[in-house]
Amino acid sequence: MQLERLLQSQGFGSRKTCRLHVEAGDVRVNGVPCRDPQAEFDTAGLTFEIDGEMWTYAEHVYLALYKPAGFECTHQPQHHRSVYALLPPPLVRRGVQSVGRLDADTTGLLLFSDDGRFIHAMASPKRRVAKHYRATLKHPFDDTLPKQLLAGVLLTGESAPLAALSAQQIDTRTLTLSIDQGKYHQVKRMVAAAGNRVEALHRAGFDALSLEDGSLPALTPGDCCRLDENHLALLGYRR
Ligand code: URA
Q: Considering only CA atoms, which residue is closest to atom 7 of ligand 1?
């Protein structure tokens, strides 16, 4: 692939901007300076440095973000900042989108990609990807609440009850639960339908990919990392 096209595909601006970067001597490819924007390179395993920062060519990118509270999952946020402000700008420019959304006050794992097939596979109701949450509730509860969630609760506007895959009481006000649907405000609405209220919500993981078991690098709120083939396998996804 031509160098200027290659840089454009990786999110470094228009073809013209990339050409100017190369001609200005800002770019090294596989460790070697290159000032020819039309130079051809094999993209397999290619690394490049632009403005002193090192990147590896990737046809698609897959990201995990530890979403902090107070960020909206949209490019045009209404009341808070955008989660996209937490991602490296070239990856935003290449068009990564989040897999579903978390509420502004929800924390935890949010996935992004520019691979439409991946986004569809993770969000598709048919594939039933499990999402694992920890909720702090307003009122103390007993084991009837997890039982209700496991049996299924009817949410306003839904024709059939929705049931959690698993639900467990951790202490008097903390609940963990997993769901494999992705309805709007689903966890908060399920807990409300069971007679309580979510005060804080955290998503620990998707399927076997978790912020809490070492399957991802240690991330703190606001951090993101690239996902590799092993991470994608934990999500049951093959490229
Ligand atoms: N369910 C909710 O109610 N909110 C979220 O952010 C995610 C799941």
A: 102
Ligand 1 pocket, 187 CB below 6 A? yes
Contact 188 CB / ligand 1 (< 6 Å)? yes
Q: Which residue has the higher pLDDT, 170 or 125?
A: 170
Range of the domain at 66: 62-126+215-234
Nearest 5°: CA angle at 114, between 178 and 45? 110
Whether residue 173 sits in one domain with residue 194: yes
Domain count of the fold of the chain: 3
Alpha-helical (H) ranges within 114-213 are: 116-123, 144-151, 186-193
- Tell me the catalytic residues: 103
Q: What pTM was computed for the model?
A: 0.95
196 domain residue, yes or no: yes
The pLDDT tens digits of the residues spanning 154-188 come to 998 899 999 999 999 999 999 999 999 999 999 99
Residues 202 and 105 in one domain: no
CATH number at residue 105: 3.30.70.580
Question: Residue 202 is part of a domain; what is its CATH number?
Answer: 3.30.70.1560
- Give the E-state strand segments of the chain in sequence order: 27-29, 32-33, 47-50, 53-56, 62-67, 71-72, 81-82, 97-98, 107-113, 131-137, 166-171, 174-179, 198-206, 209-210, 224-226
Give the integer Cα–Cα distance in Å for 93 and 8: 9
Tokens 């594939």 label which residue? Answer: 127
